[in-house]
């Protein structure tokens, strides 16, 4: 019998754990876990006290258990009070709506979705089935959120894009943003991320995209299927990112360019032009092909030595010139 999930190095009797990373294999022979999920091809070096369950992919199997466990913890239904729900809003079956939530007119929330306390949902928003909005999420008017989407606390969907027209007197005139944000199915968005509405048309987050915390997605951006972006990255307006891209933390991308599918961009890189070739790695500011950037870094590290040698050569030439 097991009653809890635990890391293999910390597990006690009654715990279920897993092993997928070879770095942790040493703990398999000392863990107190009652059950450990392991890969089918694992070869044991010594006896193991725990019961082993062999599966094709231990990490994926344990992730499935975590999903079931989390679903049990977050399994809520019903409408708490106080809330405001406009009479025209349509709420599906088995929906949870937490206290102090505001749901405007013509909102649609489909079956099994969970809206946690202090969420704001603006006019004419459509939220798909099995979607979760954690506390403090704001969804502005006309935005569309798909099924099985998870949006974490403090995130804002559909705020105005950064559009201002410079005037002759040095001031800026606001360009009203009348588009929306469309988030497709199976997207997860971290805490305090902001996705701006389009000036016209839609800012689009395609199916399966995973966004970390503290990301800025500007107006009319499109992020392709199954792309992942780490924290503190910023994507400027009207940029299009292809499918299955991997973008590290603190990456900055200028506006009105295209990023090819399968692109990998190292953390803290700055991308200032279109990346047309698919499946390539990029690094640095301005971003350059990864291997070239690594070679350049080697040269950079040798610059003080090269400067010293250059000064020695100049001094040698000067000495020879004076001795003539």
Could you describe the 3D structure shown?
There is one protein chain. The protein has 324 residues and is α/β, with parallel strands linked by helices. It has three domains: 4-73, Udp-n-acetylmuramoylalanyl-d-glutamate--2,6- Diaminopimelate Ligase, Chain: A, domain 1; 78-291, UDP N-Acetylglucosamine Acyltransferase, domain 1, CATH 2.160.10; 292-323. The protein has three helices and 37 strands. The strands form five sheets. A twelve-stranded mixed sheet has the order 5-8-11-14-17-22-25-28-31-34-36-37, with helices on one face. A ten-stranded parallel sheet has the order 6-9-12-15-18-23-26-29-32-35, with no helix packed on it. Strands 7-10-13-16-21-24-27-30-33 form a nine-stranded parallel sheet, with no helix packed on it. A hairpin with a 4-residue loop joins strand 36 and strand 37 (288-289). It is flat, with a radius of gyration of 27 Å.
Q: Helices and strands in order, then pairings?
A:
Blueprint: E1 4-5, E2 15-18, E3 35-39, E4 51-55, H1 58-73, E5 78-79, E6 84-85, E7 90-91, E8 96-97, E9 102-103, E10 108-109, E11 114-115, E12 120-121, E13 126-127, E14 132-133, E15 138-139, E16 144-145, E17 150-151, E18 156-159, E19 164-166, E20 172-174, E21 180-183, E22 188-189, E23 194-196, E24 202-205, E25 210-211, E26 216-217, E27 222-223, E28 228-229, E29 234-235, E30 240-241, E31 246-247, E32 252-253, E33 258-259, E34 264-265, E35 270-271, E36 281-283, E37 288-289, H2 290-301, H3 303-323
């Amino acid at each position: 019998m097991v009653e809890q999930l635990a890391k293999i190095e910390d597990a006690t009797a009654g715990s279920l754990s897993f092993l997928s990373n070879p770095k942790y294999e040493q703990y398999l022979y000392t863990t107190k876990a009652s059950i450990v999920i392991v890969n089918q091809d694992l070869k044991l070096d010594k006896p193991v006290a725990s019961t082993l369950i062999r599966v094709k992919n231990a990490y994926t199997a344990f992730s499935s258990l975590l999903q079931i466990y989390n679903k049990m913890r977050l399994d809520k239904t019903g409408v708490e009070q106080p809330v405001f729900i406009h009479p025209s809003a349509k709420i599906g079956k088995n929906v949870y709506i937490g206290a102090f939530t505001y749901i405007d007119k013509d909102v649609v929330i489909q079956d099994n979705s969970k809206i946690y306390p202090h969420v704001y949902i603006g006019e004419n928003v459509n939220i798909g089935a099995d979607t979760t909005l954690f506390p403090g999420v704001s969804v502005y008017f006309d935005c569309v959120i798909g099924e099985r989407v998870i949006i974490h606390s403090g995130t804002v969907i559909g705020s105005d894009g950064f559009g201002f027209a410079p005037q002759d007197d040095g001031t800026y005139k606001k360009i009203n943003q009348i588009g929306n944000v469309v988030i497709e199915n199976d997207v997860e968005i971290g805490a305090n991320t902001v996705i701006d509405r389009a000036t016209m048309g839609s800012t689009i987050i395609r199916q399966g995209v995973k966004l970390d915390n503290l990301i800025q997605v500007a107006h009319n951006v499109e992020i392709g299927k199954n792309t992942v972006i780490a924290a503190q990255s910023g994507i400027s307006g009207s940029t299009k990112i292809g499918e299955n891209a991997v973008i590290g933390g603190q990456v900055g991308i200028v506006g009105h360019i295209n990023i090819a599918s399968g692109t990998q961009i190292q953390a803290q890189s700055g991308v200032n032009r279109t990346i047309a070739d698919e499946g390539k790695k990029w690094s640095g500011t301005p971003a350059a092909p990864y291997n070239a950037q690594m070679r350049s870094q080697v040269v950079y590290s040798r610059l003080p030595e090269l400067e010293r040698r250059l000064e020695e050569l100049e001094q040698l030439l000067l000495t020879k010139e004076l001795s003539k």
